[in-house]
Amino acid sequence: MNDIRNTAPDAADGSSAASAADTGADTGSAIPTEELDRLTDDIIGALKSVYDPEIPVDIYELGLIYKIDVDDDRNVAIDMTLTAPGCPVAGEMPVWVETAVSSVSGVGDVTVQMVFDPPWDPSRMSDEARVALDFF
Questions:
Q1: Does the pLDDT of residue 65 top 60, yes or no?
Q2: Mean pLDDT along residues 51-79
Q3: In a domain, 80, yes or no
Q4: Total number of domains in the chain
Q5: Least-confidence region, from 13-22, 23-32, 102-111, 127-136
Q6: Is residue 93 part of a domain?
Q7: Chain-centre distance for alpha carbon 8
């Protein structure tokens, strides 16, 4: 698996922490580095197209994506959370994420797992999300 760790935006500067070094590209992946970089960028772009309907910020910038794994067959496994376990779209949002990431060219099967450990808190938001929500 190529684990794209720290995919949530860096709260300190609002930039994405994902890079080729974070994906495991240097550990013998069957996916060429350029392709893995493109997949990473495209997957993050797809995640940014999914919004929490109650919050006018995408789920990536909110810090709801905890982990993305891309295996050598280009199957993608995503761990995500919600701003609150009782979120009214808890059953729908993983499907939205799966649909968005499945649309990325070159991606195989997509699985989305809902996790609540650690619980989400506002410190996971990017600066972009903080500005959009006037959260400073």
A1: yes
A2: 94
A3: yes
A4: 1
A5: 13-22
A6: yes
A7: 6
Question: Cis peptide leading into 85, omega within 30 of 0?
Answer: no
Q: Are 20 and 37 in contact (CB under 8 A)?
A: yes
Contact 2, 119 (CB under 8 A): no
Domain at 70, CATH number: 3.30.300.130
Q: Would residue 122 count as lying in a domain?
A: yes
Dihedral angle, C-alpha 86, 91, 97, 100, nearest 10 °: -140
Cut 0.90: pTM above it: no
CA 15 to chain centre: 13
Q: Would you say residue 135 lies in a domain?
A: no
Which structure tokens are listed for 47? 């995640």
Q: Residue 43: which domain range?
A: 2-130
CB of 113 closer than 8 Å to CB of 82? no
List Cβ neighbours of 87 (8 Å cut-off, separation of 6 or more).
Answer: 52, 54, 93
CA dist 82 and 89 (Å) reads 9
What phi and psi, each to the nearest 5 degrees, are found at residue 128? Answer: -60, -45
